[in-house]
Write a structure and sequence with these properties.
The protein has about 150 residues and is an all-alpha fold. The chain has six helices and no strands.
Length: about 150
């Protein structure tokens, strides 16, 4: 019985007719006097890429150019999650958002600058060791608290 009802519903339903979409992945026809290869990514606004024309894609030149440009950019590697003090995390995140960069990119740039200055590097290392000792101490205290709570 439920199959008959379902069949009737399927037959009687009216599907909305959707107008055809503009396929934005296909490049618009370009005037013959403007070659596609003359357009470079550097000329584009930041964060914006244009689709490659069908003729450039078929020759593979555009793909080769993109791969060559990508090869010039240093390769990245995903690192484990960064744990920061709450207040410092908020300040660093706000600073990076205000300057439209990520925390990771900021840390890369900071490392590059600091690594060229041994005096500042030593000061940072002393502070880092102090913070590391504090974190280890906090971890031990949390563990002890958890153990003592379990015995109560």
């Amino acid at each position: 019985m439920s199959d008959n009802v379902l069949d009737r519903i399927r037959k009687n339903r009216q599907r909305a007719e959707v107008p055809p979409r503009d396929d934005t992945l296909l490049a618009k026809v370009q005037p013959p006097d403007v070659p596609q290869a003359s357009k470079t990514i550097d000329a584009l606004p930041e964060g914006e890429l244009t689709p490659v024309s069908a003729s450039a894609a078929s020759t593979g030149n555009a793909l080769e150019e993109l791969r060559a440009e990508l090869a010039k950019i240093p390769e990245t590697n995903r690192h484990s999650a960064i744990v920061l003090e709450k207040e410092l995390d908020q300040m660093l995140t706000r600073y990076c958002k205000d300057n439209r960069i990520t925390v990771e990119v900021f840390l890369e740039a900071a490392w590059i600058q600091v690594s060229s200055n041994p005096e500042v590097m030593e000061q940072i290392l002393v502070e880092a060791k102090r913070r590391y000792a504090n974190r280890k101490r906090a971890g031990k205290l949390r563990r002890l608290i958890t153990m003592l709570e379990g015995t109560l």
